[in-house]
Amino acid sequence: MRHNPIGSQILLRAPALIFPQKLVCKGNNPYCPYYPEAETMATRSLKICLAITTLLFIIVATVIVTLILTIFKPKNPVISIHPIDLENFQLLSPNSTSAPLGMVITIVNPNYGSFKYVNSTGYLKYHDTVIAEVPLETRLVPARSTTNVSTSAAIMTRKLIDDINFLQDVEVGAFNLTSTATLAGKVTVIKILRRKAKVYVTCDISFNITSVDFVSTCMSKIKL
C-alpha cells in the first residue's frame, strides 16, 4: 500500500481547522485586539467618582464647621442665686456660731448641648475671708433648659464679727459678699460628641440687714 504524505498532513491539521485554538493575550501581543474607547470610559468614570466623593466630603466638612462655629458654639450659662426663708434667717445669734442660709441656684443653659458636672464646692467670702462653704452635688443640666439647684451655706458668724470691717457695715445696715465656684464636667452634643468642660462662676452678693434683702449679680464663663 502506498503512503500518501499529503493526506497525512491534512489529517494532522484537521483538528486545528475544526477546533480553532483560543487566543491568549499576554504582554504586548500584536495579535490581541485593543479597545481605546473602553479604557477611556473607565478612566472617565473613575475621575467622576473621585470628583463626586471629594465634593461630598467638602460639603459635609463645611456643614460641620459651620455648625460648630454658630449653633454649637458654647455660650456662657446664666446663673443667679435666690435665698430661701430669709425672714427666719438670723445672722447674729448669741447661742450659735453659724447661721445656715438656704438658697436656690438657677442655671439657664442656652446651649444645644447638655452639661453634667461632678460634686463641687462653692465658697462664700467676706472680703478675703472664707465664711462659708456651699456644697454642689452632681447634676445634669439639659440642653436649652433652666435648672434649679437647692443648697445651703453655713455662715460662720464668728469670722464675720472678728473682722473690723463688719462692724462698720452693720452700722450702715448692709454688707457685701462674694461667691465663687468651679463646676467641672462634660458637655454632650446630640448624644454623640462629648468633651470636658469647666464653668467658672463669680457672684457679687449684697445683703441688706435692715430690710433683710438679698441681691446677687453673677458672671459665668465656660471653657472647653
Automatic annotation (TrEMBL):
Residues 105-201 form the Late embryogenesis abundant protein LEA-2 subgroup domain. It comes from the Eukaryota. Its main location: membrane. It is found in: Membrane. The keyword Ubl conjugation does not apply. One of its GO terms (biological process) is defense response to other organism. The chain crosses the membrane at residues 48-72. It is a single-pass membrane protein. Gene3D superfamilies: 2.60.40.1820. One of its GO terms (cellular component) is membrane. Keywords: Membrane, Transmembrane, Transmembrane helix. This is Late embryogenesis abundant protein LEA-2 subgroup domain-containing protein. It comes from Mucuna pruriens (Velvet bean). The lineage of its organism: Eukaryota, Viridiplantae, Streptophyta, Embryophyta, Tracheophyta.
